[in-house]
Structure formats: structure tokens, C-alpha cells
Design brief:
2 copies of one chain form a homodimer.
Chain A: E1 2-7, H1 11-20, E2 26-29, E3 38-41, H2 43-49, E4 58-61, H3 67-70, E5 79-81, H4 88-103, H5 106-114, E6 130-134, H6 138-149, E7 153-157, E8 169-171, H7 175-179, H8 183-197, E9 202-205, H9 219-223, E10 230-233, H10 242-250, E11 256-259, E12 279-281, H11 291-306
Parallel strand pairs in A: 1-2, 1-3, 3-4, 4-5, 6-7, 6-9, 7-8, 9-10, 10-11, 11-12
Helix pairs in contact in A: 1-11, 4-6
């Protein structure tokens, strides 16, 4: 008999959905007991329980990001699976929504209405623009497919994978860069990133928080973007050098920024982002975890776990995603 | 030798593009002369020149809407062709942009940012929503295709055509309605419209200005929309009963309206639309006529005209589109 603990703000809803599936040999525990071998929930809540779960053998997260659990100092003696494939549609809506708000000048036109100004100046289009995706996993692939639907050119920057056919051109760090911390390899990575970013109309980061992605969006990368470029971050706040981004906006080196994720969340009220010009923010809401979608992953994975087979969406602790 | 007159705010740009195509047996006139047999341009400018063009045999418009020329009192002794196929992509961007602005609450979230409020309430999605298209010609078909890409359900209301495979269900007035002005047939049309509109999340009008479309969006139609519904008009302002629309918004019978077109353009500053709550407007800019795209249509049509063959996109003066 497996014992499951649910650690989530929506635990009640998840419990009902899992009970409804009548999974064999599974009981759902209401409190943390030493016999629990499966945990389902959000990484930040699970992290604090790890020390009290001696029998733990599988964790299924409700999120795609798992950085709270891949910290090298934390235990890694269990199977970690995350949620994938379910966020791409929502994140694509978010990205396209803000790209269109930018191109169609919907905030400026709202101001025109307020001043009763018949402002019939032409607005822009997505057609023919070039979008660069930092990170092309299952979410990036869906953003790429959506960008292609709107007739954009699509570039992708990934560690090494080239799985989406909707990316026109891929860019990667050299292999030696991945395996070394030397100054030379950092320069090689910077060169690959700069070719990737050069001339982009839109830069979108969908990167997870790993040792290889920290502050990848830095002053050097921002410097090669055209002044009309828009940057959107729906991945993790850690991928951005915050002061470099603020400088780029203040100096009009780029046209606009849309951030859904931040180094610290909720963002402290004293943070300069709140009032940086041409910076628009949302509050880690670009792609909420919908309990029906996430529970489906658990229900698919449970029989595989029960039979000792490889699970879907296993996280590589070394890669941190 | 054919003689062409260009009547457009962008006449200079069109002239260069047409000259570049080196069309045979064609001279471009700079002033209105009696020998002119072809006119290319915007209907409102062409209308005023009609009386001074005794040799006129073909008019190619730069717009899709041609109501300035289909007025029953005006002459109809020439071939009228309009611009089609070129606006669908831009109008789809507009519609999807405002639908996403609505679902993702981008104006509310901008206010949250201004008040430094970490507002992480869930926002909505297009997935699974039902959109109703009033008018499904080449523009409507492209909006339908885009709606399907975002996994919406699509209804279409047309006179009788069912040409887009991206429409899940079509609604039509009965044949007798089209041929009669009787009270009964008006009621039949209202019944078909109400089935079409009932329960829609989004209503989008792409209707041309004809005798059959005037005030089709009236109090009865608005009454069957759910209170969370959004109405977008990218067709013609004449399709809307303005005071019924303002009442529906003031009484919260629908959630929002986005208008790009109006009975009178530019909209007079004293018009109540400017300040009606939950009404957002743009200024007949949802799909600008891009000279490269429009000129292509003229260049394709010219040899057909020259050889006396049927032209592309001929307008039926009776139907008015």
C-alpha cells in the first residue's frame, strides 16, 4: 500500500480529483507520517518536508519549475517528476497577448480615447517579426508553434536539444562551455548568445532556474538587441541581471519589458521594477497550474511508479530540469 | 491605351508601386480627365469623382468596405472590385489581441502594478471559449482559423455561405427573410440571430455596411449575450444600434466592448462612446491597407481587365459586397 501526501494550496481540490480516479493500493494521508512514500505538490512546500519523509521514493510536482528541490545540498534519493506539456498553451496566450498589446499600442490607444483624440496612426504587426526563445522545452515549443502561426521568424537558444520543428534556427553554447567554468568557455557562451539575440524584435525567456541560466540576460545580451525590441520573461527571475535590465530601459536601449517572474516573489514594494519606465509586470500568473491538468499527470504516472517503470517527466537533478 | 487615376491619401506610394510593375498599355494620369477608364483608390474619394468620369469602366478599391459606391442612387455602369484576402491576418491579430487583453486582464494588472499590489489572482484563457462571428467572408474565415488555433468553439452567422471549415456551426436567416421586408421575416431573422448569439463568450462583427446589416446588433441581440460577454466590432459601425450598446454596457448586461468602426468617422468628440464604461475604442485601424498588398491585387486584376475576363473580387452592387 502506497501512502500519498498532498502539499499544495489547492490540496483539497487535488485530493478530490485523485480520489475520483480510484487508484489501486493508494491511501491519501492527511498529515505527515514516516510511512509516506509519495508526495504530490508544490516544490517550495515539499522542500521543507523532505527531512521528515524517511520512506520517500517519488515526488510529483504541480509546477514545471523545481529549483527548490534540485539544490545540490538537498537530498536526491527519490524520483522527482514535474509537470510539463500543460503550460504551453497558457504561456503562449500570455506571450502573444503582450506582443500584440505592444504592436497594436493598446495602452497608447487607451490614452488617445481618454483625451478624445482620433489617433488613426498605423500600428504594428507580428507578421515577419523575429522572436528569439531562450529555452525551448515543451513550453518553448508551443510558443514557437504559435509564433509560426502568426508568421514570425523563430530562433531558439537551448543547451543542445533541437526538438521543435517550429524553430527556424537553433543556437547553443559549445560543449566545452557546458562542461567548464573557464573564462574562455564563458566567452564562447556569450558569443553564441549574442548571435542568437542580434537583431531580434522580441526576446522571450522560458528558462528554468539552474546554475547555467543565472543572469544569462545580462548587459552584454541586452546590448545586442535593437532599440525597438521587447523582452518578456515567463521563465524564472534568476535568468535576468536586474540592474542591467533597468539600465537598458532607462537608457532606451530596448523598447519594453514584460516580466511575470522575479528573483524574489512576491516582489518587495521597494523594488525599482515597480516604477521602471516601459516595464510592465504580472505576478507569476502567466500559466497557472490547473488542478485537472496536473492531476492527469499524477494519474498517468502512478501505475508506472507502482510497476517500477520509468515515469513521465523525470527531472535530472544534475541538469536541474 | 488605358488611363488610370489614383485617388488615395497614399497616391504617391501607389503610383510608384504600379509604375514599377510596368503594366502594358497603361498610363497613370495626374489629374481628372474625361478619358480616364480605370480608377484605383478609396471609395469615399472615388464617389465624388464618379460624375466626372464618363469613360469609367473599372474601379479597384484599396479597402474591403465599398458602401460609398454601392448606394442605390449612385451609378453602377462599371466593374467594381474591392480588396480581399489581405486584411484577415491583421484583423485576426487585432481580435486576438483584444480578447487576450480582456482574458488576461492586462489593464487591471497595469493598475495593480501602479498600486504596487502583487495581484496573483488567476486570469482567464481563450481555450474552450465560444466565439461568434457575424459575417464569415475572407476576413471572418481567417479569424475563425485563428480562433481554432487557440482551441475556441466557433459559430458563424452568414447570409447563406458556409465556406470556412474552421466554423463549427453556421446560422443563417431564412431565405424568405432575405427576400422580404415583412414583419414575420424580420422575426425569423431575429430568431436565427438569437440562437447564434445565445451563450457566446465573444461576439465579433465583421459585417459590411449593407441594407441587410444595419443595426443587426440591437437590444434583442445584446440581451441574449451572457453578462461576461465581450463584443468586438471590426466591420462597420452601421451594424450596431449605438444607444442599445451603450445601455447594455451601462446596465452591465455585457462585460465589455471594443470598437474600431463607427457610424460617423472620425467619431465626434461629443459622442457618448468616448466615455462609456467598459467600452474601448480604436480608430478604424484594425487592418490598415498596406500599399504593397493592395497594389498586388490591382496588378493581378489589370491583365484580366485588359483581356475582358472576369476580375478577382468583383462586388455585387445588389448585395453591396
Amino acid at each position: 500500500m502506497h501512502k500519498l501526501l498532498i502539499l499544495s494550496k489547492e490540496a483539497g481540490q487535488y485530493r478530490l480529483l485523485i480520489e475520483k480516479a480510484r487508484l489501486p493500493d493508494l491511501t491519501i494521508e492527511s498529515t505527515l507520517t514516516p510511512e509516506i512514500d509519495i508526495v504530490f505538490g508544490s516544490p517550495s512546500l515539499i522542500k521543507d518536508a523532505l527531512a521528515s519523509l524517511p520512506a520517500l521514493s517519488w515526488v510529483q510536482t504541480t509546477s514545471a519549475g523545481v529549483e527548490a528541490l534540485t539544490n545540490p545540498a538537498a537530498r536526491r534519493d527519490y524520483i522527482l517528476t514535474n509537470a510539463r506539456e500543460v503550460f504551453g498553451g497558457l504561456m503562449s496566450e500570455y506571450v502573444i497577448g503582450y506582443l500584440l498589446a505592444h504592436e497594436r499600442k493598446i495602452f497608447e490607444l487607451q490614452q488617445s480615447q481618454l483625451s478624445k483624440d482620433w489617433n488613426d496612426a498605423d500600428t504594428g504587426t507580428l507578421r515577419g517579426k523575429t522572436i528569439g526563445l531562450l529555452g525551448v522545452g515543451s513550453i518553448g515549443a508551443e510558443v514557437a508553434r504559435t509564433a509560426k502561426f502568426f508568421n514570425m521568424n523563430v530562433r531558439g537558444y537551448t543547451r543542445e536539444s533541437e526538438t521543435s520543428k517550429h524553430v527556424d534556427k537553433y543556437y547553443h553554447p559549445s560543449k566545452s562551455t557546458l562542461e567548464s567554468d573557464s573564462l574562455l568557455s564563458k566567452q564562447q557562451q556569450a558569443a553564441a548568445l549574442q548571435s542568437f539575440a542580434s537583431g531580434l524584435d522580441y526576446l522571450v525567456s522560458i528558462l528554468p532556474n539552474t546554475k547555467d541560466t543565472r543572469k544569462i540576460v545580462d548587459a552584454n545580451l541586452l546590448a545586442v538587441l535593437p532599440s525597438h525590441a521587447l523582452f518578456i520573461n515567463v521563465g524564472r527571475g534568476s535568468a535576468v541581471d536586474e540592474s542591467a535590465l533597468i539600465d537598458a530601459l532607462n537608457q532606451n536601449k530596448i523598447a519594453g519589458v514584460v516580466l511575470d517572474v522575479f528573483e524574489q516573489e512576491p516582489l518587495p514594494t521597494e523594488h525599482p521594477y515597480w516604477t521602471t519606465k516601459n516595464l510592465m509586470m504580472t505576478f507569476h500568473t502567466s500559466a497557472p497550474s490547473l488542478p485537472e491538468d496536473i492531476t492527469k499527470i499524477f494519474i498517468e504516472n502512478y501505475p508506472l511508479f507502482n510497476e517500477g517503470k520509468p515515469l513521465k517527466y523525470e527531472v535530472d537533478f544534475e541538469r536541474e530540469y
